[in-house]
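R.M. (postdoc): so does anyone remember the format we settled on? I'll just put the structure tokens first.
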């Protein structure tokens, strides 16, 4: 697989997602959810003009490109102008609303003075392995690539003019595909279509379809071919209109901040575009069945630069869910807490580091205590938005289990035991209870929210503080329901008192261990004095400290001295080594914007917000990091957490 570190654009529907480069190349295709399964190693399309070799549509020296979404939709357009042959092509990519199909509609205009003979070529290489080998089978109007579990079918409404099942590399460049075989054990195959003669000044339309299916949904290959035979009759213009209407209606329904009618000077055209792109991105990141939310669409399958991205971190998803609430996405938030969080909570009350969006445990290297605390905090935040007591009651058991895990975590810290002993003891008790004494016992000291440092962290304790206050709020709301249940009320009172005691313990611990008396600033943990933007978490969102407390003001001053870059964006922490550690993050910069709003400094908040607005991609996506030199995204475009913080900050700026 070649490196494909940047998804410049994404399209999709409830089951299918696809990402593209800035030149319109299909990079990835997912089914049935955003994080599984990804099929495409590479997908190359091109044209043969008269007797020429192939002209790759997405990487030719004579091509010029312009890319944009159809207004208010997830329909992607890539304009390609080949200056050598004077051909203009508009490629329009979208997912059909009700089918597992990606449509690739091409409008080709001959601007040459001469008539041109055209052929269209497609080369598709899928991921394959010995345990689930991909093979190819040619059909009249396309190619079926299949393994044991899935099929990936490429077809058009006209028959192919050539094909190659094996050894495509030897002939694809010359754009002449011949093969005696109709089927073969190859994951790299190609087909071609004769588009005929295009006269000077004329236009031709051609549509390619990609249909992805789980083989459990079909009886055999013959049934699949019958479905393709029916699908080739699709009226692509009708499907385009339907997709356009669907996304336009979706956007209008979820304009929770009412930006369409907002005349605030903050809301310029660029802000509106980012806002709309955020609303349209969120459904593509969420697993509709479970409510799990992917951090982004994957960019680093081989873990060359990261630990991978397309997983659901409960913490990240809590903040994305908070943004959902601003956007009239109540159903999506409900499903995240009611379904995903309940499904993924461990029996001891904690949440592991990360999960697939279907709720199964993803590869992890430790746990982060703030994730458990964040879920409690998030449940109450959602309740405050909806005031639905039924939701609160439904999630109380989950939150109480998490609360008691947090109690034990703090007992370990404040009781001066090693944290790993407590975690080991908890797991050992669970293992014995379930009769799994021979299971491997895993244990780790908690990581910080950046997943890089183990220990006791200010942000983590602040998140627990926020969770505790949320639990008090929830208990106060549900107490009337138990007015005739003395035992339940006594238990609630006992928990509330325990919470209040632990809140004081947190304050004392932070004062004694996470505040530097010499420099008068907050520390990220007790082990080092590197300045870290996450210390602001003690102010926003968890409110352990007020924005105008002296220790906070001192900390912010040092943050501005050490983490603010010359472009106005903020780094995560001093001596950050991830991806070089030299670029600011939109998440951290918007975090500072939220701090400044808490402090009443709207001017500085606006500056932070403007940095993010001015550093998005041309299509309105917010990245994980921003290149200071170019002010363009430098990594992980379309990061859910970044977009969530944009919505949260914008909502506060508009108040």
């Amino acid at each position: 697989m070649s490196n494909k570190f940047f998804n410049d654009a994404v399209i999709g529907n409830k089951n299918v997602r696809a990402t593209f480069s800035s030149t319109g190349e299909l990079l990835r295709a997912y089914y049935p959810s955003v994080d599984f399964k990804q099929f495409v190693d590479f997908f190359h399309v091109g044209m043969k003009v008269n007797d020429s070799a192939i002209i790759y549509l997405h990487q030719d020296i004579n091509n010029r490109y312009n890319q944009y979404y159809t207004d208010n939709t997830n329909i992607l357009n890539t304009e390609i102008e080949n200056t050598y042959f004077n051909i203009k092509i508009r490629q329009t990519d979208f997912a059909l609303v009700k089918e597992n199909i990606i449509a690739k509609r091409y409008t080709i205009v001959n601007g040459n003075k001469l008539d041109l003979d055209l052929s269209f070529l497609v080369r598709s290489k899928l991921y394959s392995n010995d345990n689930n080998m991909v093979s190819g089978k040619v059909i009249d109007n396309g190619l079926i690539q299949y393994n044991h579990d899935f099929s990936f079918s490429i077809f058009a409404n006209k028959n192919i003019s050539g094909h190659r099942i094996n050894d495509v590399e030897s002939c694809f460049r010359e754009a002449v595909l011949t093969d005696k075989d109709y089927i073969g054990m190859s994951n790299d195959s190609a087909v071609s279509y004769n588009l005929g003669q295009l006269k000077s000044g004329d236009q031709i339309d051609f549509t390619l379809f990609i249909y992805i299916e789980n083989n459990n949904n079909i009886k055999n290959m013959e049934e699949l071919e019958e479905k393709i035979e029916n699908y080739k009759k699709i009226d692509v213009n009708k499907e385009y209109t339907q997709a356009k209407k669907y996304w336009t209606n979706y956007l209008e329904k979820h304009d929770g901040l009412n930006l369409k009618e907002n005349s605030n000077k903050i809301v310029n055209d660029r802000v509106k575009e980012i806002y709309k792109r955020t609303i349209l991105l969120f459904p593509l990141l969420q697993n509709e069945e479970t409510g799990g939310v992917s951090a982004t669409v994957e960019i680093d399958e081989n873990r060359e630069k990261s630990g991978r991205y397309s997983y659901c971190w409960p913490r990240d998803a809590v903040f994305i869910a908070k943004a959902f609430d601003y956007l009239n996405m109540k159903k999506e938030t409900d499903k995240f807490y009611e379904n995903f969080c309940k499904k993924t909570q461990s029996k001891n009350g904690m949440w592991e580091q990360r999960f697939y969006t279907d709720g199964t445990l993803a590869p992890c290297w430790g746990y982060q205590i703030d994730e458990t605390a964040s879920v409690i905090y998030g449940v109450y935040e959602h309740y405050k938005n909806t005031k639905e007591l039924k939701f609160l009651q439904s999630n109380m058991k989950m939150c109480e289990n998490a609360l008691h895990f947090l109690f034990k975590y703090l007992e370990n810290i404040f009781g001066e035991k090693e944290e790993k002993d407590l975690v080991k003891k908890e797991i050992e008790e669970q293992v014995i209870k379930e009769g799994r004494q021979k299971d491997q016992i895993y244990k780790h000291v908690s990581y910080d929210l950046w997943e890089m440092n183990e220990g006791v962290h200010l942000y983590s304790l602040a998140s627990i503080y926020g969770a505790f206050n949320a639990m008090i709020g929830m208990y106060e709301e549900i107490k009337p329901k138990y007015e005739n249940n003395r035992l339940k009320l006594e238990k609630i009172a006992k928990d509330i008192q325990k919470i209040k005691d632990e809140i004081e313990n947190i304050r004392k611990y932070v004062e004694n261990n996470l505040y530097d008396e010499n420099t008068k600033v907050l520390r990220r943990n007790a082990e080092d004095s590197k300045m870290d933007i996450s210390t602001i978490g003690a102010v926003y969102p968890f409110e352990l400290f007020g924005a105008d407390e002296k220790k906070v003001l001192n900390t912010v001053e040092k943050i501005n001295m050490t983490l603010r870059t010359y472009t106005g964006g903020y780094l995560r922490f001093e001596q950050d080594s991830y991806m070089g550690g030299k670029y600011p993050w939109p998440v951290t910069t918007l975090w500072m914007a939220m701090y400044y709003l808490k402090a009443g400094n709207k001017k500085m908040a606006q500056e932070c917000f403007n940095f993010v607005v001015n550093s998005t991609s041309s299509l309105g996506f917010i990245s994980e990091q921003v290149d200071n030199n170019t002010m363009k995204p430098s990594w992980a475009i379309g990061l859910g957490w970044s977009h969530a913080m944009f919505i949260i900050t914008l909502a506060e700026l508009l108040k």
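R.M.: ...and that's the designed sequence above, right after the tokens. Also worth knowing: The domain at 9-247 is CATH 2.70.98.10 (Beta-galactosidase; Chain A, domain 5). The chain has a mean pLDDT of 94.
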